[in-house]
């Protein structure tokens, strides 16, 4: 018996020898929370959703929903008795129903704990009003994805499972829909698990984020901590948010910890994990950690510059050959070219010193 809304205890999810996730422990404490599962394609994320929905058996472990055991090595509640809605990445609409009838099919089976949502509201949010009379073969993959999402939300499940729900939607529409859908899910209290390989989507949509790598749930935490304090080099490398540089721990006892890099000099901040003074470590350096300062005496060579809309990402090279990424706002008056010198504010202060 579990007091949490959803709890997975030592769950082993297996679809094949390569497609499996072992020993998963995951808790959704309260109704209405949104969780994202983030990892590369083919890692087993969808297998977890299919098992939660009852389409596959749990290899071992236990799954509780609203205090009821729904899956174990001996127990398997059938999908139709779970009141869990799964919206697949690919088109799963009824081909002989038009769009509005597909949506209304979900409405006919609504009996969960979430608040009932108005059909016209979800149609407006997902921008599908113009295709209501069309059939699945007459609409695009992105439109079919939105219709499937509408049908799932309308069905008022206890748990909503979304498999790459925005992958086929144009970027110009995706951001708007993500914001609107999140607000709706929160307002109606619909507990949701979203599977994605897009870290921005995972972080923006979810209250908690699980990182799945090499057949394991490596980290399960609020998105801020996953981004700023990855619990392993493996997670940091997957998120691809920075580089690791060699440092020495000068002082880990004071309120402000001090590290030293051979060329960058002293780096101050708060160590996210305890390391003794005098030890060697690898420090995660993310693009937002270094601050550009044209007046600084600490200057490095520019070896690359990428324009990312609101920012430039400069790549700087140290004398030892380390390449360091730095964000600079695109309105910064002076744009640096390759082989120019680039000033970095010193001493360096980083809120989260992530070292391994």
Describe what this molecule looks like in 3D.
With 356 residues, the protein is of the alpha/beta class. It has two domains: 6-234, 3-Layer(aba) Sandwich (Rossmann fold); 242-353, Nucleic acid-binding proteins (OB fold (Dihydrolipoamide Acetyltransferase, E2P)). The chain is built from eight helices and 19 strands. The protein has helices spanning 45-53, 99-108, 119-125, 141-154, 171-188, 199-205, 223-228, 233-239, and strands at 6-14, 20-28, 34-38, 60-65, 68-72, 84-87, 159-163, 191-196, 208-213, 216-221, 243-251, 257-261, 265-271, 280-285, 299-307, 311-317, 323-329, 341-343, 348-353. The protein starts with 5 loop residues before the first strand and ends with a strand. The model has no long low-confidence stretch (mean pLDDT 92).
| CATH class identity of the largest domain | Alpha Beta
Predict the CATH topology of the largest domain: Rossmann fold
Shape category: globular
Q: What is Rg?
A: 24 Å
CATH superfamily of the largest domain: P-loop containing nucleotide triphosphate hydrolases
Distance between the termini: 38 Å
Label this structure with key terms.
Rossmann fold; alpha/beta; 5-stranded mixed β-sheet; 6-stranded mixed β-sheet; 356 residues; globular; single chain; OB fold (Dihydrolipoamide Acetyltransferase, E2P)
Annotate the secondary structure layout.
Blueprint: E1 6-14, E2 20-28, E3 34-38, H1 45-53, E4 60-65, E5 68-72, E6 84-87, H2 99-108, H3 119-125, H4 141-154, E7 159-163, H5 171-188, E8 191-196, H6 199-205, E9 208-213, E10 216-221, H7 223-228, H8 233-239, E11 243-251, E12 257-261, E13 265-271, E14 280-285, E15 299-307, E16 311-317, E17 323-329, E18 341-343, E19 348-353
